[in-house]
């Protein structure tokens, strides 16, 4: 067994990443194309980005989408973290199997089923469809992703600190906020970001559950994409890709730094 | 269990809030879907009948029950209505895609797990990053590449490989490309997680005892990575069966997939009751893989403790 990477490993990584990134790169490059014909390169231009500023429908949709993504991921983070605690800390409770089923099933459930079932619920209880129904639907499916991310951190976590705090008479509620939460914070933050991008991204569930006046950005993009590739859509997509890339990189640098600091503090505490 | 001693209102609160939320907004809707699948379309608000009128008491309930029928299931299961074909072809497309994903994803995950420890987090990040960018955008990107006047055809024609453009967009081949591309991170991540845990001394021992590398792979590495293979395959297969966006944007008019049929039934034919019946049957098809997936996840969680 040779150590390190064989040519086969290097080739498969390089080809794999090329496959993942080339389509996105081409899309970004062609958003700067001067020609309206998407496939003919006619020089560099930012005109499609300026055109976006005048597209009020698109800007409205972007605003609706951002608000839904922000508020739904906030609530989903709280609910998902609670669900993760319930799954990992509280042992057996009645109906635990059903609970874990309801956490895992939404992760793989085809979106058409989730979307249709939520819509029929809102109709059955006579809830006016629009911003709030999309928000509720997004909270429900994204909280399960948060729960899984936070749960994976909670199981690998040293419980001695929690136990020490509880033994010293710290109330459980305070123990959570003083000990547990700071330690699982990177997972909670990535859970929040995952929920945010899933909500930002969702077309199918939003299309089913929305009503008049709450058209989201993916719905607008989808209705234009069906008519063919246009440079404006390439420009919107490029902006979204840039936003997500910046946020993900900042977050990963921040959690890395927080992790390093925590390790340094732990070492310092050991030395004393 | 650290907090097991904590029996109090706090514990029940933490369990009850997400539990009730999911019961009300995830489980209850399925019961409603089932109920509506047994109803009939009417031109009214809501567009189905019968509706349960509790004000009429028991009589209202029996009247409601007698109004339910399995007629929609008869309609969906009728061969002439193409739903059965759509279920079948969805299962075939999802299975072939899952195999392709394994073939593409395994070498990538294997290479990542064998890469120097120092660059593994970066590689992992690079696999996850496309997953954070919009699914719709990633599917859209392929339209520009695969269309007859698209970049792939232009490139191949410029190189003189082909004379006439290849018809890829609006065929099942485009659907396979779209699914493999979009779901690849879901396949690579569980595979990497399984391969990364592999104890390399096992392979060294095999090599010392004269086992050729290819045999060592099939007798040691692959069997030990099976939990990752199963998790990745289910994580891709289950949502792929109900996929809507990819067959709609990349597939042709003859690409039958049940997610697309359900969407059309709902938005074009506006039959809520038939769409509900399609959804119930799709759920029945997927219930076994979903339960297996949940058990694998649950076992992983227990193993982590």
C-alpha Rg of chain B, in Å?
25 Å
CATH topology of chain B: MetI-like fold
Listing every helix as H and every strand as E from the N terminus to the C terminus, the arrangement of chain B reads HEEHHHHHHHHHHHHH
Summed up, the domain count of chain B is: 1
Mean pLDDT of chain B: 87
- State the major sheet of chain A: none
Round the mean pLDDT of chain A to the nearest integer and report it.
86
Overall tally of domains of chain A: 1
How widely separated are the two ends of chain B?
A: 10 Å
Question: What oligomeric arrangement do these chains adopt?
Answer: heterodimer
pLDDT < 50 stretches of chain B: 1-6
- The percent of residues in helical segments of chain A reads over 70%
State the share of residues found in helices of chain B, binned by percent: over 70%
Can you offer a commentary on this structure?
The complex is a heterodimer of chains A (272) and B (305). With 272 residues, chain A is mostly helical. Chain A is built from eleven helices and no strands. Chain A has one domain (56-271): MetI-like (MetI-like fold, Orthogonal Bundle), CATH 1.10.3720. In chain A, helix 2 packs across helix 11, helix 3 runs antiparallel to helix 8 (172-201) and helix 7 crosses helix 8 (172-201). Chain A is globular and about 70 Å long. The model of chain A has no long low-confidence stretch (mean pLDDT 86). Chain B has a two-stranded antiparallel sheet with strand order 1-2. Chain B is mainly alpha-helical. In chain B, a hairpin with a 6-residue loop joins strand 1 and strand 2 (48-49). Helix content of chain B is 72%, strand content 1%. Chain B has one domain: MetI-like (MetI-like fold). At the A-B interface, helix 1, helix 3, helix 4, helix 5 and helix 6 of A face helix 1, helix 4, helix 5, helix 6 and helix 8 of B.
């Amino acid at each position: 067994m040779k150590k390190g990477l064989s040519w086969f490993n290097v080739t498969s990584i390089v080809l794999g990443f090329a496959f993942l990134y080339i389509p996105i790169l081409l899309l970004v490059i062609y958003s700067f194309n001067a020609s309206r014909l998407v496939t003919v390169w006619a020089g560099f231009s930012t005109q499609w980005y300026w055109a976006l500023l005048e597209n009020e429908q698109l800007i409205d949709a972007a605003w609706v989408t951002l608000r839904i993504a922000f508020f739904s991921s906030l609530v989903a983070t709280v609910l998902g973290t609670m669900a993760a605690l319930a799954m990992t800390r509280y042992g057996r409770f009645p109906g635990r199997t059903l609970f874990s089923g309801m956490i895992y099933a939404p992760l793989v459930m085809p979106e058409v089923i989730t979307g249709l079932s939520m819509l029929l619920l809102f109709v059955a209880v006579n809830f006016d469809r629009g911003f709030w129904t999309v928000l509720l639907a997004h909270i429900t499916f994204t909280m399960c992703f948060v729960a899984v991310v936070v749960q994976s951190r909670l199981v690998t976590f040293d419980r001695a600190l929690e136990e020490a705090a509880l033994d010293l008479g710290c109330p459980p509620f305070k123990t959570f906020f003083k000990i547990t939460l700071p330690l699982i914070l990177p997972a909670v933050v990535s859970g929040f970001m995952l929920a945010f991008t899933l909500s930002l991204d969702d077309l199918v569930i939003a299309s089913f559950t929305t009503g008049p006046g709450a058209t989201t950005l993916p719905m607008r993009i989808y209705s234009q994409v069906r008519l063919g590739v246009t440079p404006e859509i390439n420009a919107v997509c490029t902006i979204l890709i840039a936003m997500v890339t910046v946020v993900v990189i900042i977050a990963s640098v921040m959690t890395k730094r927080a992790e390093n600091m925590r390790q340094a503090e732990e070492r310092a505490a050991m030395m004393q | 269990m650290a907090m097991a001693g904590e029996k109090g209102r706090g514990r029940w609160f933490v369990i009850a809030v997400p539990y009730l939320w999911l019961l009300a907004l995830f489980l209850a809707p399925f019961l409603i879907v089932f109920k509506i699948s047994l109803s009939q379309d009417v031109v009214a608000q809501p567009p189905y009948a019968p509706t349960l009128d509790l004000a009429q008491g028991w009589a209202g309930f029996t009247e409601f029950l007698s109004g339910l029928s399995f007629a929609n299931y008869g309609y969906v299961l009728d061969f002439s209505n193409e739903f059965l074909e759509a279920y079948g072809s969805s299962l075939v497309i999802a299975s072939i895609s899952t195999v392709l994903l394994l073939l593409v994803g395994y070498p990538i995950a294997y290479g990542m797990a064998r890469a120097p420890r120092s660059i593994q987090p970066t590689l992992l990040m690079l696999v996850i990053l496309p997953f954070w960018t919009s699914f719709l955008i990633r599917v859209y990107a392929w339209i520009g590449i695969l269309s007859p006047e698209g970049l792939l055809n232009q490139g191949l024609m410029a190189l003189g490989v082909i004379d006439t453009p290849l018809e890829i967009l609006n065929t099942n081949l485009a659907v396979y490309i779209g699914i493999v591309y979009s779901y690849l991170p879901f396949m690579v991540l569980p595979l990497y997680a399984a391969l990364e845990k592999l104890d390399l001394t096992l392979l060294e021992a095999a090599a010392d005892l004269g086992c050729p590398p290819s045999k060592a792979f099939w007798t040691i590495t692959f069997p030990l990575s099976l939990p990752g293979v199963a998790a990745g395959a289910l994580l891709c297969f289950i949502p792929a069966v109900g996929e809507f966006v990819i067959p709609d944007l990349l597939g042709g008019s003859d690409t039958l997939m049940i997610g697309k049929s359900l969407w059309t039934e709902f938005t074009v034919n506006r039959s809520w009751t038939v769409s509900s019946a399609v959804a119930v049957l799709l759920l029945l098809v997927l219930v076994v893989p979903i339960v297996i997936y949940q058990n694998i996840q649950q076992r992983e969680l227990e193993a982590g403790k």
